[in-house]
C-alpha cells in the first residue's frame, strides 16, 4: 500500500496513478498529523482492509493535482549510514580522503530531525561559497519499538520505505552538522508499506540534476544492507516508531546549485523532484 500525506495533512492511498482521501476512514486528525501517524502504524494491520476498501471505492485525484508532503510528519531520530557503497567510498577517498576503508569502520551517524522535509519543498542552500552535494538513498521508517534487534528480524520492525535525499555540505566539520540544515532530508513521495517490498536490498536507485543523470546504483551493493543498518542502530540506542533510517548513497555524488532541479527515483517505491534555492546565511559564510 502506498500511503501519502497531502494537501494540508490529509491522508491518502495512492493507486492507479491517483490518490484517494482516506482521512475519515483512518480516523486521521489533520490538526495532529504526527500523533495520527503513530496511531496509523500501530493499528495498520487491523485498519488495512477498510483502508483498501475506501481506496478501491473512492474517486481519487490525479497525482498532479495534489501537493504531497513528507510522508513521515515528524521524527525523533534520523539515523544515516555514511559511505555505505564501495564505489562511493572510493570516490570520497579520491576527492576528500575521508571515507572508512573497511566495512568494520562504517558507523552510523545522526541527522537533526528538523532537517526532514517533503517532496514538494525546495532544498535551501545555506552557504554561497561552499560545495553542497546530492546523495540519493533508500529510506525507511520504523514501525515498532526496537532494541538489540538482529538483522534477520529487522524486517518485522520496518513500517515502510521511501526515496530519500541526504543533502551534504563538504568540509571538515562533523557529519551531523554538515547534513542537518533545514530541508537537508527530503523524503517521499509516499511510504510503500514493507509488505509490498519483497527485498529492499535489490532496488535500483537513480538521481538526475536537471536532465543529467548523476547516480545509478542498486541496493544490492550496500555494504551494510537495509537490515544490517537497522541492527547497527538498535545496538546503539532504542528505535521508536517514526524514527527514520537513511541507508547510504551509491557513487556519482556531486554538487547542486541554486536553480537546479533534483529528481530521485527508487524502484518499486517512487520518485520526486525538488528545486534548489538559495537561502544564504551571511553570518555562516563569514564564519
UniProtKB/TrEMBL annotation:
It comes from Salibacterium salarium. This is FAA hydrolase family protein. Keywords: Hydrolase, Metal-binding. Pfam families: FAA_hydrolase. It comes from the Bacteria. Residues 77-277 form the Fumarylacetoacetase-like C-terminal domain. The keyword Transport does not apply. Belongs to the FAH family. The keyword Hydrolase applies. InterPro entries: FAH (IPR051121), Fumarylacetoacetase-like_C (IPR011234), Fumarylacetoacetase_C_sf (IPR036663). GO terms for biological process: small molecule metabolic process. SUPFAM superfamilies: FAH (SSF56529). GO terms for molecular function: hydrolase activity; metal ion binding.
